[in-house]
Write a structure and sequence with these properties.
This protein folds into two domains: 115 residues, NAD(P)-binding Rossmann-like Domain (Rossmann fold, 3-Layer(aba) Sandwich); 183 residues, 3-Layer(aba) Sandwich (Rossmann fold), CATH 3.40.50.720. Helices cover 31% and strands 16% of the residues. Helix 7 links the parallel strand 6 and strand 7. The longest helix is centred in the last third of the chain and has 19 residues. It starts with a strand and ends in a 10-residue tail after the last helix.
Amino acid sequence: MLNITFLDGYTVNPGDTTWDAFERLGNFTVYDRTTPDEVLARAAHADILIVNKTRLTADHFDALTRLRLVCVAATGYDSVDVAAAAAHGVTVCNAAGYSTESVAQMTLALLLETTNHVGQYAEANRQGYWSRSKDFCCWTTPLTCLAGKRLGIVGLGHIGLAVARLAQAFGMEVFAATSKSPDQLPPFVTPLPQDKLFTHCHVVSLHCPLTPQNAGFVDAGLLHRCRPGLVLINTARGRLVDDEAVASALRDGRLGAYCADVLSEEPPRPCHPLLSAPRAYLTPHIAWATLEARERLMQVVSANIAAFLAGKPQNVVSA
């Protein structure tokens, strides 16, 4: 039987579901985490490797001569040197689409925290805030209605479209910077150039892949031109933004809020500028991690392996 090794399986399955789908396909070994120094030893006898965030470099592909397939247990595959894999005849597959609804849900949850402050008030009430009130209701921060507000989406793929539908349900006007032609867009989405989104919309949400061309495109210059009080949401990739510039824009009031499930370094160093910035709502890269999404992810990855073994590889990515 084939040897299948998952180098960093803990975040995909910390113990709340099973590995049955993989165990049926071959001799399956799973490690919770794998350091860079451990990759070669643990992968030496693998015909198929599964990775989530563990990096696979050209040096790894040079050494792992038995390897035939790499399955990335994620949508993004920038952790794998795809060109080096191809040079060694190794197929690389990703798992697009498994977390669409979960990431869209988190995007709206982050936005709603900026408008309704549920977490803030729930915690304050545990400390007696409401009990001390002279009135039946009390608030210290503005509450905002989303209906009629303008949402700009950068990247209108599966997740961007799901966010657009949720935003429409809240009565928001939806705009998008997208490569899709106008006739490919839902009737409630209006195309708009990317820079215009930042000046015209109340909220901008990032849903584009990270590329060498757009890394750090949300920089000090763009933030200086943005609509005052803009709420910026990033559930895509941390390195799409310049963290220092975003923290500075929050401190000087140019940005109304920054909502992010991703950062440029994960986990962040304790002194990361956004951890202490005002109105920064950060979650620890968990938008994708609902149980339902993780079970779909394992189904997609196991199906990728089965398709490869049947001579019909699917979800193949290239450099």
